[in-house]
Amino acid sequence: MQAARASSHEQQVVSLYREYGPAVYRRCLRLLRDSEAARDATQEVFVKLLRDIGKLAARDTALPWIYRVATNHCLNLRRDARRRGEQRGDDALELAPAALHPYPERRLAREVLARFDSQTQAVAVGVLVDGMEHEELAAALGISRRTVHRKLTRFLARARALLAGAEP
């Protein structure tokens, strides 16, 4: 009985990997900027999914959960690399070139994000795009929850001013 359940879980994860693996890889590649590291990170995300399959309530919640795990994992890798001195602390998150996105809203978001340092970009994307809680993001980035709140507040104020046409 337990072997059948494990096999069922493995099949579910294989199916999720086939469906969402490329999106997770692109997310990891965007955050890590290294194809080998992104492949490894993608595999780690799905290994974690296999271990924690019980946390996945329904298939329609799979992608947000997997995306969040991928983001946390990659941010942890970036933080650890920075602590070991393997990565400069001022490396900005890689943003997709504007030419790849014909949507003006994406180009606008890219232009606004580009005006901020990498840590503020990570906070804005983590909270506003990935829906991470402040505590969770603080742990992933190796900063305090208060710093997350402060950076997000400043980001939102400056972004609103930029969009209104008056830089603060």
Characterization of the model:
The protein has 168 residues and is an all-alpha fold. The protein has 2 domains: 90 residues, RNA polymerase sigma factor, region 2, helix turn helix motif (Rna Polymerase Sigma Factor, Chain: A, Orthogonal Bundle); 77 residues, Winged helix-like DNA-binding domain superfamily/Winged helix DNA-binding domain (Arc Repressor Mutant, subunit A, Orthogonal Bundle). The chain has 7 helices and no strands. Helix 1 packs antiparallel against helix 2, helix 3 packs parallel to helix 6 and helix 6 crosses helix 7. The longest helix is centred in the first third of the chain and has 31 residues. The protein starts with a helix and ends with a helix.
What percentage of amino acids are in beta strands?
under 5%
For the record, the CATH architecture of the largest domain stands as Orthogonal Bundle
Unreliable runs: none
What assembly state would you assign to the polypeptide chains in this entry?
Answer: single chain
Can you summarize this structure?
About 70% of the residues lie in helices and about 0% in strands. The longest helix is centred in the N-terminal third of the chain and has 31 residues.
